[in-house]
Design brief:
alpha/beta; Rossmann fold; 2 domains; 6 strands
């Protein structure tokens, strides 16, 4: 293999973010109902509005993804004192999320196969919760570095995210590959810097991938086979 290192996304690349979010969100709404005596539709409507407001106010920053801010704003919109409930509900969400996490089939086997390579995890979310995910999935056994958007002050596909990863790995763009699920954020962002990119396209989304720098795969077993040809 010609690569000296991998830049690797976490969410929806190494595990199914969406299914875990659904379970955690369902319990979050239920617990919020119990604590506030509001009905389900009212709570969900407030949460959606809160998330929208935070995204607008903190656009393109790691804080725009912070569930604690979503929950705090949700309670404020419901005219509930957020000071004694926000952290409790935040922990309800993430504890449930983490308890249900498990890696995609063959993901850990793939990492183990290439544990001699330099690996940098590249993610848009806040550092604290991403480190908890890393611990839950056991990624600390394989990854050497991490770059979060909280640290970088930018979000993917901004080139600085990828440049910071290369700097930490002390490698050139031609010496690494990117592995991720988001075509816009992971694949376009990396390929624009000349980084060979492997796109986990589990849902077979159609994109104009007419580039030698972009290779699609649907599972880690297939990725392993493609890597053997690199």
């Amino acid at each position: 293999m010609r690569y000296k290192g991998f830049i690797l996304d976490i969410d929806n690349t190494l595990y199914d973010y969406n299914s875990n979010h659904e379970k955690a969100f369902e319990l979050l709404i239920l617990e919020t109902q119990k604590e506030t005596n509001k009905n389900k539709d009212t709570v969900i409507e407030a949460y959606i509005q809160a998330r929208k407001e935070i995204h607008i106010e903190l656009s393109e920053t790691a804080s725009s993804h912070n569930r604690l801010l979503y929950i705090q704003r949700t309670l404020e919109l419901l005219h509930i004192n957020s000071m004694n409930l926000s952290l409790k509900l935040y922990n309800t969400y993430w504890d449930t999320f983490l308890n249900h996490m498990k890696p995609f089939d063959n993901a850990i086997e793939f990492l183990n196969q290439y544990k001699d390579k330099s690996i940098c995890l590249l993610t848009d979310l806040t550092a604290h919760i991403q480190h908890r995910k890393i611990e839950k999935l056991g990624l600390y056994k394989y990854a050497d570095y991490i770059v979060t958007s909280e640290e970088a002050g930018k979000e993917k596909p901004h080139p600085y995210m990828f440049m910071l990863a290369l700097k930490k790995m002390n490698l050139k763009s031609s010496e690494v590959c990117m592995i991720g699920d988001s075509y816009k954020k992971d694949i376009v962002g990396a390929s624009q810097l000349g980084i060979q990119s492997f796109w986990l396209n589990r849902e077979e989304i159609k994109e104009n991938t007419n580039s030698d720098l972009i290779v699609e795969f649907q599972n880690f077993k297939e990725l392993e086979e493609r890597m053997c040809n690199e």
